[in-house]
Amino acid sequence: MKILVVGSKGQLGCCLVDQLRDKDFEVIFTSRSEIDMVDLEEVKTSITESNPNVVINATAYTAVDKAEDEKQEAAKINHFAVANLAKTCNEIGFWLIHISTDYVFDGAASLPYDENSETNPQCVYGNSKLKGELAIQASGCRYLIIRTAWVYSEYGNNFLKTMLRLGADHDELSIVGDQIGCPTYAQDIAKSIVSILSFLDLEGSSSGIYHYCGDEPCSWYDFARAIFLEAGMHGLKTPSYVKSIKTSDYPTPAIRPAYSVLDCSKIESFFDVNRSNWREGIKIVIDRLH
């Protein structure tokens, strides 16, 4: 099987490089800087020349707050580029594995969202990601859309690395405690995608949306406390006091879901993957960073 990974320099892309490195696949890694994803003809030419069986789209515009002012840039990467990938995959007959987000939901639920839950994004980023999903479904290509949440790793910019940086510089921190979700280690997402690839060879593999995230709901405050606990065990400087605050005490340009726990039972039963053990992931990341 030949795999083309688009977005190989981003957080998930780097993890896919790690997880695919020693596997029995022929893999081509590329990035947005190498393909103008908004140029349909360039996308067609680049992908046709690669001639993969599966395209994994790990590229995304993820600056949630900046997206409120950069609507066109978010739409370009999360919607129009995705639509071009999907059209190309449909015309040539490749599978498309695409990563989406919990931000397609409004956060008003009190039970985990499954794949059939009503979408209702509350911010520009979430809306652009939902439009990408809809473009894939409308294209007619064979696809897997994997929605995930609160992604962190040893790569790129993410909440865990921000907490380590702020914790080293401040004795007190205030962290939002009334938004609930499931942290997800990007290496676990990559591992799950790699294990799913073998299923795409099977007759009857069908397109669909799947949820994949961490194994335990928590707040950003809880997540931060777990990070600082592990950091302290590694001898790193951590705040002496961490305060839980309300979302209203820390206003941001983009509205974030108050509750975005995802039901992962479908992906677990279809593809025999395990949800991300995010507490173990924290240990691994801090080990690798220090």
Question: What would a concise description of this structure say?
Answer:
The chain has one domain: Rossmann fold.
Provide an overview of this structure:
- The chain is α/β, with parallel strands linked by helices and 290 residues long.
- The chain has one domain: NAD(P)-binding Rossmann-like Domain (Rossmann fold, 3-Layer(aba) Sandwich), CATH 3.40.50.
- The chain contains nine helices and twelve strands.
- It has helices at residues 11-20, 40-50, 71-92, 124-139, 159-169, 186-197, 220-233, 265-271, 278-289; strands spanning 2-6, 26-30, 54-57, 95-101, 142-148, 151-152, 172-176, 180-181, 184-185, 208-211, 218-219, 241-245.
- The strands form four sheets. The chain has a six-stranded parallel β-sheet, with helices on both faces. The protein has a two-stranded parallel sheet with strand order 6-9. Strands 7-12 form a two-stranded parallel ribbon.
- Strand 4 (95-101), helix 4 (124-139) and strand 5 form a beta-alpha-beta unit.
- 47% of the residues are buried.
CATH T-level fold name = Rossmann fold
Number of domains: 1
The strand order across the widest sheet is 2-1-3-4-5-10
| Shape call | globular
**Largest sheet at a glance?**
6 strands, parallel
Helix/strand class? alpha/beta
For the structure shown, list the relevant keywords.
globular; Rossmann fold; six-stranded parallel beta sheet; single chain; two-stranded parallel sheet; 9 helices; 12 strands
Q: Topology, pairings included?
A:
Elements: E1 2-6, H1 11-20, E2 26-30, H2 40-50, E3 54-57, H3 71-92, E4 95-101, H4 124-139, E5 142-148, E6 151-152, H5 159-169, E7 172-176, E8 180-181, E9 184-185, H6 186-197, E10 208-211, E11 218-219, H7 220-233, E12 241-245, H8 265-271, H9 278-289
Parallel strand pairs: 1-2, 1-3, 3-4, 4-5, 5-10, 6-9, 7-12
Antiparallel strand pairs: 8-11
